[in-house]
């Protein structure tokens, strides 16, 4: 009867599992990344004012989010967290449009710039999105903002 030395089978099994795991990780797709991650543009919000906006985009597969802060709209009163409803409209691949929506925001003190997001949307690999307008609803009052400059450094590419 043949005897195995102590630990030989355990080491071989561990080595096989390690090789299989390394192969699996090597074949796994890399996490999707949107470029650029941050962009700026200017908005005119009519009666509410005008100013610059900073947009920050993230992606997880076909799900994407954009957070936005703009000096174009300042809050005349304190606004509680998650009370701002926003819709960001973007051109999609140079022709059509898509929207990112949400009701997420930090608390906004009186006199401070409005921040909203993350706003949620759906993307496909290769989509190029550039912001064109923003609708913000606070306490039933709607501010509609139109882009007055192109998004810089360029559209988000997912």
From TrEMBL:
<feature type="signal peptide">
    <location>
        <begin position="1"/>
        <end position="32"/>
    </location>
</feature>
<keyword id="KW-0732">Signal</keyword>
<protein>
    <recommendedName>
        <fullName>Lipoprotein</fullName>
    </recommendedName>
</protein>
